[in-house]
Write the structure tokens for this entry.
Amino acid sequence: MIFSAEEQLMYQVMKAIYESGIPVSFKGSMVLKVCLIEAGFTDDMRHTVDIDGNWHSETPPSGEQMVESLQTALTDHGIGLEVSLYRMYGDGRSAGFELADHETGDVLFTIDVDVNRPEVSSRIYEMEGIRFRGVSPLQMLADKTSALSSEKVFRRIKDMVDLYYMSKVFEFDGDAVLQALEDTGRRLESFDGFLNKFDELKHAYTKFRFSGDVNKPSFEKVYDSVKTYIGSILPNV
């Protein structure tokens, strides 16, 4: 699997945050890539330009506290990036941070952090000296399947693509996925968009861009594979 220069730097940032003891567990594509590699996946997959995480602490942190913690972690690990808060967290909204090159001021990538949301299962991942805490494979399956079950599917095409990748190396346990959702107070929706709005979904997939030289499989291949993969929990399938 090939990592972009930005992704390689993002893993260094994740390592610095973990080693600094900041109460953040990671999620999203950066975790998925390592998870897939551990499971034996060798193909290239879509690149990403941000880090996603969950921040859990006894008291809600201020924006200034979060920026200071992140900046200290980077400085202590010799990473020449400046952290700034561009979006404060709130009800249903994550905190957003920009990480800019110390010398040029160019923003290289962002970090989106949910604060004190319900805790989910996580584990330690390690790859070539990079170590961090991230959500478990089961939790990723549950989150992505949940997105497909709702009308968010048209804005979350990346979750369908990620399930396509995961289908190559992970078994799908429908009961375990349902339990993982229940543990965080969620349930699956009707899958109406995924099952009954094929043309609209294909249009959204066509617009979804794969950066770099990563192969973009046909919509039909992705759709059919994912539909079969999660078939045990689809209605009337």
Observations:
- The beta strands are 24-27, 50-55, 81-87, 95-101, 107-115, 122-127, 130-135.
- The CA atoms of residues 75 and 81 lie 8 Å apart.
- The mean pLDDT is 93.
- The first strand starts at residue 24 and ends at 27.
